[in-house]
Write a structure and sequence with these properties.
Length: 407
């Protein structure tokens, strides 16, 4: 063993030193088996002790669970680095970078500086257990200066991290779990289970409302846009279609939906909606409702009516834009889980806007003329022996609105 400690040589080359022993011995360990109450608790998997300035260690540790009875499991590769660059007693450099995470996130991993004196820097690495009746198994698959790194084994789960400076894990920029393209996330941690893993493309499978069952003319929440500052804007082009019901004619249409907070917060936002290429789906079947309009927030909810029994609407945002880009102050959240609303009277309180519909719409009677119908053309079909009538909604000189008959 004494030769190994000094470094085994052959032909003048060093083949093996004490720093190779951790790799040869395959540092590994495992947690205790988790009880139901242990889910979300931490287990310590490694400890680093550094005695001198400029000492360091870094390693990749593979963590895997899977002994639980669920179909899901947790797994991650953790890059763990501690470097005492400044004088002893000063804060060390600690890096915790997580990649290939499944069933867990980067924030489920944390390092804690539990001792930081002139004689010793001690950092502990913790991982949350995410499933009950599971065991976390961990193994060092690559390390440098491994003499400062110790793997710990079979410790109790703890609810809170120990006292000390915490460094929470971050997701690797090059991780398979967070691949971006054109500023949009293309692949996420839960890519295979994500509702919409490729957000910059049109969804192959559209969002879907609940089914109306035996009650026709129910309203579905399609989406919500939220703004928190003046001049913010959101816009989307949404394709609608139905077809589950047994009716011969199904709903379809293409909706431009735009909300702009041009005036100061607390003032009414601009809402622009235009419905085109529509069939059995009129302006009366779509409503944007301003449910919140305060000095700090504007919220507009978009609803669509499903007209047939045993039917459901499928909708696909073809294009989506928020301004300004970046951050989360402007958002559009699409909805396919909120229960249907049985009647128009059940819609939330707020200012309502319906879309204009280019082209000629068939109506049984003229709706009340207003700015929301400006430019809209309506056809009133006559009974047998009575001619059709065609009208256009216009603004008059006194800024009121009326229907002008074209035929």
């Amino acid at each position: 063993m004494s030769n190994l400690e000094r470094g085994a040589t052959a032909g003048g080359y060093t083949l093996l030193t004490t720093r190779d022993l951790p790799t040869i011995l395959a540092k590994s360990g495992n947690s205790m088996i988790s009880a139901l109450a242990d889910v979300g608790k931490y287990t310590k998997i490694a400890t680093v002790e550094i005695p001198n300035q400029y000492n360091q260690t870094y390693a990749v540790i593979k963590v895997t669970g899977g002994e639980n009875g669920a179909a899901s499991y947790q797994h991650a590769d953790i890059f763990f680095r501690v470097k005492q660059q400044a004088a002893m007693g000063s804060a060390p450099i600690v890096n915790v970078v997580v990649s290939d995470a499944v069933g867990m996130t980067a924030t489920d991993v944390a390092a804690v500086v539990v001792k930081n004196t002139t004689a010793l820097t001690k950092v502990e690495l913790y991982v949350k257990i995410k499933f009950s009746f599971d065991v976390l198994r961990y193994k060092v698959i690559h390390e440098v200066f491994g003499e400062y790194l110790k793997i710990v084994n079979g410790l109790q789960f703890i609810s809170a991290l120990p006292t000390g400076t915490q460094v929470v894990g971050t997701l690797s920029d090059g991780s398979f779990n967070n691949l971006t393209m054109g500023g949009k996330t293309v692949i996420t941690t839960d890519h295979t289970d994500a509702t919409d893993p490729h957000t910059q493309y049109v969804r192959k499978m559209p969002y879907k409302t609940s089914n109306t069952g035996a009650t026709a003319s129910q309203w579905a929440l399609i989406g919500t846009t939220t703004m928190t500052a003046q001049y913010q804007m959101s816009m989307a082009l949404i394709n609608f279609m139905s077809g589950v019901s047994g009716t011969a004619v199904t709903q379809k249409g293409l909706l431009l939906f735009r909300v702009k907070q041009q005036a100061a917060m607390g003032s009414a936002p601009i809402i622009e909606m235009e419905l085109s290429r529509n069939n059995a789906f009129s302006y009366n079947d779509i409503k944007a409702i301003v449910t919140t309009n305060t000095s700090s927030q504007t919220v507009v909810k978009l609803y669509a009516r499903i007209n047939s029994v045993y039917d459901e609407l499928y909708f696909n945002p073809i294009h989506e834009l928020v301004y300004p880009t970046g951050g989360t102050i402007v958002s559009i959240v699409w909805d396919n889980v909120t229960p249907l609303i049985a009647t128009t009277g059940g819609l939330p309180a707020g200012t309502q806007t319906s879309p204009i519909t280019p082209g000629v719409d068939k109506e049984s009677s003229l709706p009340t003329a207003s700015s929301s119908h400006r430019g809209r053309i309506v056809r009133i079909e006559g009974a047998t022996g009575v001619a059709d009538s065609v009208y256009v909604c216009v603004k008059k000189a006194d800024d009121t609105y009326d229907w002008a008959q074209l035929y």
